[in-house]
Write a structure and sequence with these properties.
Layout: H1 2-12, H2 18-39, H3 43-58, H4 60-78, H5 88-111, H6 117-123, H7 127-135, H8 142-152, H9 157-161, H10 167-170
Helix pairs in contact: 2-3
Length: about 170
């Protein structure tokens, strides 16, 4: 069968239509089963081997359907599983990665021909800083970083104002 299909494909070229490929596949499988049946002299054993070959070839589909039905039933019994929450480290890392990616997208958009640079420059307060950002400089200044750290860093003003009061401190 292999040599026959190779000769046909070599002569006429490979099949490209999906229906033709399926038709050839089924024809070769049926011809192989017929040759297997006719090649064994004890007909009950030949029939049993043909049935075993047929079942093992097509057993994947019913098993796949049964497994999918089992998973659907199991998920309906158990309900939806709760989403996994990020750890603080994963959250911080994802924030840094996404911020970096978004800033690069913004830079590339600002460099693109669709971006109206004159309209943007006329509306912003610091055009030099914007030009530096588009050129690759940081989007925050050192002064802004130090103010942020002072207010929101460890021991910052924001955390002290919003820290929970312990019951012992009230007494």
């Amino acid at each position: 069968m292999g040599f026959l299909s190779f000769g046909i494909c070599y002569r006429y070229g490979p099949l490209e239509n999906e229906r033709s490929i399926n038709l050839l596949s089924w024809a070769l499988q049926l011809l192989g089963l017929l040759l297997m049946y006719s090649g064994i002299q004890i007909h009950p054993i030949a029939l049993a081997l043909v049935l075993i070959a047929f079942c093992t070839k097509n057993l994947d589909y019913p098993l796949h359907w049964a497994f999918a039905a089992y998973r659907r039933l199991q998920s309906s019994w158990l309900g939806p599983s709760p989403p996994r929450l990020l750890t603080e480290e994963e959250f911080r890392l994802q924030g840094e990665v996404e911020t970096r990616r978004a800033l690069e997208e913004l830079r590339s958009y600002c460099r693109s021909p669709e971006f109206s640079a004159w309209a943007a420059v006329s509306r912003i307060q610091a055009p030099k800083r914007f030009a530096d950002f588009v050129g690759g400089a940081s989007h925050v200044t050192h002064n802004e970083v130090s103010v942020h750290e002072r207010e929101y860093g460890l021991g910052g003003i924001f955390l002290e104002d919003h820290s929970p009061v312990s019951p012992l401190a009230e007494q």
